Amino acid sequence: MKTEKQKMLSGEAYRPGDPELAADAQRARAWMVRYNTTLAASPKERRVLLRELLAHVGEDAVIRPPFFCDYGQHISLGDGVFLNFNCVILDVAPVVIGDLTQVGPGVQFLTADHPRDPAQRRAGIESGLPITVGANVWIGAGALLLPGVTVGDDAIIGAGAVVTRDVPAGATVMGNPARQRPKA
């Protein structure tokens, strides 16, 4: 029989109030209290803290505080990744961000999802799907990436875009929902 955490990480329906998940979330909240006071610290000092919580932190990866996440331990950042102020990563499923990706302020990576059936929602059931972002991607301020989305290498996501489906490598998308812009 799977634990609620195992169900969560495999994309199955799970109960977020499970004691193991609650303990992991509390650990992340305590870490965020510490991390979000480090704005004046050097990127190197902040990377030490990032490595305490996140699954992987590549060389020269930067997250400018404040930063918010559910668990942290399901987030992997490649080398040279830059996340600007007020990034939110709901990591009930893995979030992988490739090397040299640049993320504007206020961007949200939302792996969490809720049942369409109202009885299941009332019962407190949730689920999630991973988000994967390739290398050298630029994500503009205020963009939202929804559960299960994959963004290919060298793509551009316009500011304020709502990414509801996969973005091919090298594509530029914008709008709500985000649509590919034709090449000039």
Automatic annotation (TrEMBL):
InterPro entries associated with the record: Hexapep, Hexapep_transf_CS, Hexapeptide_acetyltransf, Mac_dom, Trimer_LpxA-like_sf
Stretches assigned to the Maltose/galactoside acetyltransferase domain: 5-59
Gene3D superfamilies with a match to the protein in the record: Hexapeptide repeat proteins (2.160.10.10)
A molecular function (GO) term: O-acyltransferase activity
Keyword Hydrolase: no
Keyword terms of this UniProt record: Acyltransferase, Nodulation, Repeat, Transferase
GO CC terms, sorted: cytosol
Function: Acetyltransferase implicated in the O-acetylation of Nod factors.
Family named by the database record: Belongs to the transferase hexapeptide repeat family.
Name of the molecule in the record: Nodulation protein L
Species of the source: Plastoroseomonas arctica
